[in-house]
Amino acid sequence: MNIEIIDIPKVEDYRGNLAIIEKDVVPFEIKRVYYLYDVPSSAKRGGHAHKDQFEFLIALSGSFDVVLNDGKSTQKVTLNKPDKGLLIKTNVWRELDNFSSGAVCLVLNSDVFLEEDYIRNFEEFRKFIG
């Protein structure tokens, strides 16, 4: 599967921890940042794949599941630590669900919003990847 769990460097301190994303933590130049919050526990987000863009997801608070499909297999990754991120590369279908109360999902993206980069129908995704 075209994904990777990446440890985010952190500085631990008795006053609280500091996580740092710079330089080579993610393998792309960050061009877009957004976050999901106040997501009802019964709601699903995502439901798409990207043709060219990479995304890096971090659970800043709480937890949620990311269900991934590459057309051959399905894998579930639970994000629940702000010092671990999930890199999703191209041609991977993703759905986010099982949001805990107070969950915040930060997304770093390799490009600005481009609708033509999205595949929003799972059957079209299967055809696209062959």
UniProtKB/TrEMBL annotation:
It holds the Pfam family FdtA. SUPFAM superfamilies: RmlC-like cupins. Residues 1-128 form the Sugar 3,4-ketoisomerase QdtA cupin domain. This is FdtA/QdtA family cupin domain-containing protein. The lineage of its organism: Bacteria, Pseudomonadati, Bacteroidota, Flavobacteriia, Flavobacteriales.
